[in-house]
Protein backbone atom coordinates (compact mmCIF):
# COMPACT_ATOMS: atom_id res chain seq x y z
CA UNK A 1 0.00 0.00 0.00
CA UNK A 2 1.41 3.40 -0.96
CA UNK A 3 1.59 6.57 1.05
CA UNK A 4 -1.81 8.08 1.70
CA UNK A 5 -2.59 11.73 1.14
CA UNK A 6 -1.04 14.06 3.76
CA UNK A 7 1.24 11.32 5.16
CA UNK A 8 5.02 11.27 5.37
CA UNK A 9 6.97 9.04 3.02
CA UNK A 10 9.97 6.97 4.19
CA UNK A 11 12.57 9.65 3.45
CA UNK A 12 10.62 12.35 5.31
CA UNK A 13 9.97 10.07 8.28
CA UNK A 14 13.63 9.06 8.54
CA UNK A 15 14.54 12.76 8.80
CA UNK A 16 12.28 13.54 11.75
CA UNK A 17 12.10 10.20 13.62
CA UNK A 18 15.35 10.78 15.59
CA UNK A 19 14.09 14.22 16.69
CA UNK A 20 10.93 12.90 18.36
CA UNK A 21 10.57 11.62 21.92
CA UNK A 22 9.77 7.98 22.57
CA UNK A 23 12.92 6.33 21.19
CA UNK A 24 14.14 3.17 22.93
CA UNK A 25 17.01 5.20 24.44
CA UNK A 26 14.62 7.75 26.01
CA UNK A 27 13.84 7.35 29.72
CA UNK A 28 10.04 7.26 29.39
CA UNK A 29 7.60 5.22 27.31
CA UNK A 30 8.53 4.26 23.78
CA UNK A 31 6.55 5.88 20.98
CA UNK A 32 5.77 2.89 18.81
CA UNK A 33 3.00 4.89 17.19
CA UNK A 34 4.93 8.13 16.65
CA UNK A 35 4.62 7.90 12.88
CA UNK A 36 0.89 7.22 13.03
CA UNK A 37 0.49 10.13 15.45
CA UNK A 38 2.50 12.56 13.29
CA UNK A 39 0.56 11.48 10.20
CA UNK A 40 -2.70 12.09 12.07
CA UNK A 41 -1.58 15.58 13.05
CA UNK A 42 -0.54 16.29 9.47
CA UNK A 43 -3.91 15.07 8.22
CA UNK A 44 -5.76 17.56 10.43
CA UNK A 45 -3.39 20.46 9.78
CA UNK A 46 -3.11 19.97 6.02
CA UNK A 47 -6.76 19.18 5.34
CA UNK A 48 -8.09 22.01 7.49
CA UNK A 49 -10.60 19.66 9.11
CA UNK A 50 -11.61 19.73 12.76
CA UNK A 51 -9.91 17.36 15.18
CA UNK A 52 -13.23 15.57 15.62
CA UNK A 53 -13.13 14.61 11.91
CA UNK A 54 -9.82 12.75 12.24
CA UNK A 55 -10.12 9.31 10.56
CA UNK A 56 -10.23 6.38 12.99
CA UNK A 57 -7.05 4.84 11.52
CA UNK A 58 -5.05 7.51 13.42
CA UNK A 59 -6.64 6.74 16.77
CA UNK A 60 -9.09 8.59 18.96
CA UNK A 61 -9.17 12.26 18.01
CA UNK A 62 -9.16 13.44 21.63
CA UNK A 63 -6.03 11.42 22.41
CA UNK A 64 -4.22 12.68 19.30
CA UNK A 65 -5.21 16.27 20.07
CA UNK A 66 -4.09 15.99 23.70
CA UNK A 67 -0.71 14.58 22.64
CA UNK A 68 -0.37 17.27 19.95
CA UNK A 69 -1.00 19.95 22.60
CA UNK A 70 1.52 18.39 25.01
CA UNK A 71 4.17 18.36 22.28
CA UNK A 72 3.40 22.02 21.50
CA UNK A 73 3.84 23.05 25.13
CA UNK A 74 7.01 20.97 25.45
CA UNK A 75 8.55 22.62 22.37
CA UNK A 76 8.93 19.37 20.44
CA UNK A 77 7.38 20.70 17.22
CA UNK A 78 9.58 23.79 17.43
CA UNK A 79 12.72 21.62 17.74
CA UNK A 80 11.65 19.59 14.69
CA UNK A 81 10.99 22.72 12.63
CA UNK A 82 14.28 24.30 13.73
CA UNK A 83 16.21 21.19 12.73
CA UNK A 84 14.48 20.98 9.34
CA UNK A 85 14.93 24.67 8.52
CA UNK A 86 18.60 24.60 9.55
CA UNK A 87 19.28 22.38 6.54
CA UNK A 88 20.30 24.63 3.64
CA UNK A 89 19.19 22.01 1.10
CA UNK A 90 15.65 21.89 2.40
CA UNK A 91 13.23 20.77 -0.30
CA UNK A 92 10.24 20.97 1.99
CA UNK A 93 10.37 24.68 2.81
CA UNK A 94 7.06 26.26 1.86
CA UNK A 95 6.68 29.96 1.28
CA UNK A 96 3.17 31.27 1.69
CA UNK A 97 2.18 33.43 -1.25
CA UNK A 98 -1.38 34.08 -0.20
CA UNK A 99 -2.80 37.35 -1.45
CA UNK A 100 -5.22 39.16 0.77
CA UNK A 101 -7.62 41.50 -0.93
CA UNK A 102 -9.49 44.25 0.83
CA UNK A 103 -12.74 45.78 -0.27
CA UNK A 104 -12.22 48.92 -2.34
CA UNK A 105 -13.70 51.11 0.39
CA UNK A 106 -11.13 49.80 2.86
CA UNK A 107 -8.49 52.01 1.23
CA UNK A 108 -9.85 55.21 2.76
CA UNK A 109 -11.03 55.58 6.29
CA UNK A 110 -14.30 57.11 7.31
CA UNK A 111 -14.09 60.89 7.06
CA UNK A 112 -10.57 61.04 5.59
CA UNK A 113 -7.28 61.27 7.49
CA UNK A 114 -7.36 62.02 11.20
CA UNK A 115 -6.08 65.46 12.14
CA UNK A 116 -4.39 66.11 15.45
CA UNK A 117 -5.34 68.97 17.64
CA UNK A 118 -2.57 71.22 16.18
CA UNK A 119 -3.54 70.61 12.56
CA UNK A 120 -0.80 68.04 11.82
CA UNK A 121 -1.98 64.79 10.13
CA UNK A 122 -1.56 61.69 12.31
CA UNK A 123 0.92 59.08 11.03
CA UNK A 124 -0.06 55.46 11.69
Write a concise synopsis of the structure shown.
This protein is about 35% helix and about 0% strand.
What's the topology here?
Layout: H1 10-16, H2 34-47, H3 61-74, H4 76-86
Structural class: mainly alpha
Number of helices: 4
User: How do the helices and strands follow one another from N- to C-terminus?
Assistant: HHHH
Identify the overall geometry: extended
> Residue share in helices?
25-40%
Query: What is Rg?
Result: 22 Å
> Residue-averaged pLDDT, rounded?
78
Percent range for β-strand residues: under 5%
Unreliable runs: none
> Whole-Å distance between the termini?
57 Å
Number of strands: 0
Tell me about the biggest sheet?
Answer: none
What would you say this structure looks like, in words?
- The chain has helices at 10-16, 34-47, 61-74, 76-86.
- The model has no long low-confidence stretch (mean pLDDT 78).
- The protein has 124 residues and is an all-alpha fold.
- It contains 4 helices and no strands.
- It is extended and about 70 Å long.
Question: What labels describe this entry?
Answer:
124 residues; mainly alpha
Amino acid sequence: MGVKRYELNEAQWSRIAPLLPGKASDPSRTGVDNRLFVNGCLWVLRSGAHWQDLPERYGKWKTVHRRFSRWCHAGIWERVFDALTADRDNQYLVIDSTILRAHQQAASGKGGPRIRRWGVPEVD
